[in-house]
Amino acid sequence: MSDHMDVADDAAFEPKVWDLGPETEYRFELDPGMCLVIVVLRGNAEIFGAELVEGKQHVFAGECKAAVYTWKGCSIEVTGRPSTEYTSDETLPMTAYANLHIAFEQMRVKALAHLRGSPIPDGPSRVTSESPRVLVLGPENSGKTSACKVLVNYAARSRMGWVPVLVNTDPREGGWAVPGAITAAPVAAPITTPSASLPLGAAASSAPTINPSNALLPLVYCYGHTDVQRNHLLLDRVIRNLGASVGDRFEANPEARSSGVVVDTPSTFAAGPANTASVRSKLIRACVDAFKINVILVIGHEKLNIEMQRTYGSQLTVVKIPKSGGVVELDPSYRDRILNMQLHTYFYGESFTPPPGLKLRSNAVYGGEALSDLVLSPASTTVGFEELAVWQIGEKSLAPSSALPVGATRTVSEMQPILIDPSKPGSGLLNAVLALLALPADGDERERYDEEVLDLGVVGFLVVTAIDIPRRKMTILSPSPMVFAGRTAIRGSVEWQEQ
Ligand SMILES: Nc1ncnc2c1ncn2[C@@H]1O[C@H](COP(=O)(O)OP(=O)(O)OP(=O)(O)O)[C@@H](O)[C@H]1O
Which end of the chain offers a freer environment for a tag, N or C, measured as fewer CB atoms within 10 Å? Predict the structure, then answer.
């Protein structure tokens, strides 16, 4: 049953109290420029598994769409003017997530006991002593990212002190960085959802000097495009690189492995035109291999569930879970706006105007952060053409795979790094988003190789805001002041647009 409300203009900014019964949720959607403040008056409430602290003002903006869920019932006070708000008791997927969480918790406990050589709980176990390494698949708008957040947040909230790794392989979403990136981070405290431009909450990558409460330090690799089909060989390679980096972290800290991994994927892995089927299955395979997946969750897609059962059923567990009725259908224009908003947020942070008539208290939070920590000050630096080497991967006029004749395959050139000459008019560098690469590890120079730029992690993203060809200089926007001399960057197809 759903209790829909039409939002009346005149009463919109009066606080409204919603009493939620057990296992129900209050769903809301914000239009551009809107801000919503929610206070839990009584009971326990959570957003995608992250608890809302009672009595605190929780601020939402940036076209956020989410649901306040309660297991046992609660009262919340809501101030603002959402474009849609209603309550629903059709929350069956939350029960499915809770059951999965309990099963994953047992796997973690056994994995840790095994590692420490302690007796395995529940006697000799049928279940292996592996931690849960979960791949989440589903079509567009099926709630994959929300499901990942719930599962990771429940683990991070557990008293066992788990720090699960959340991986985002959806380059359209950009995870903790910018669109075009794929990222992974150990999650020690629940991830919040204050805004659509911070789909996985804030991270320290764009503003290392602030965000004191958020210690997330993601591993970042650059794919450079938002379209999975554009250069799937490259995406396959960066997914495997990200998996290797996560593996290295586990090598360095074996107990961290027992918390497990949850991998979010793009909807294009699950569904798409028939001629993309082999690419899709190769990319799913890349994830299964890279993160040593032992559980595949398929959200609301029977055909894919059967396909996964057939392909992987003998070696790992495939579970189908229902799609939540609350998941919002995101249209292409919304996705374009969010892409730009996410880029801007990476450099400038967030800003919002509180609902008229509402005074925000000093302890109000925006996704777990104090309001004073939201605005960032990027740096603008002039750099000589010779100082920063910018590469692109593959040929300039790379057509998407879907545009190739049926049966045609790409040549190796799509994985070939090509140095961009900024002095050439039409180099495509102006307004390009660049991924600044980590320095190669010290070592034998002979170990360096031509395609090295494909395999290096990213330390931050930059934008070329001006090019002066006569003076051979370009102006670069970076999240914080940086020295670029001798550094290497990659350009993809993501472009900066002024807002
Ligand atoms: N129960 C819910 N109530 C309200 N909004 C929700 C609910 N579940 C998900 N949403 C919102 O719906 C939108 C889509 O959900 P989500 O991003 O989880 O789906 P997805 O399958 O990962 O999307 P994509 O198509 O980008 O891969 C998001 O804005 C999310 O916050």
Answer: N
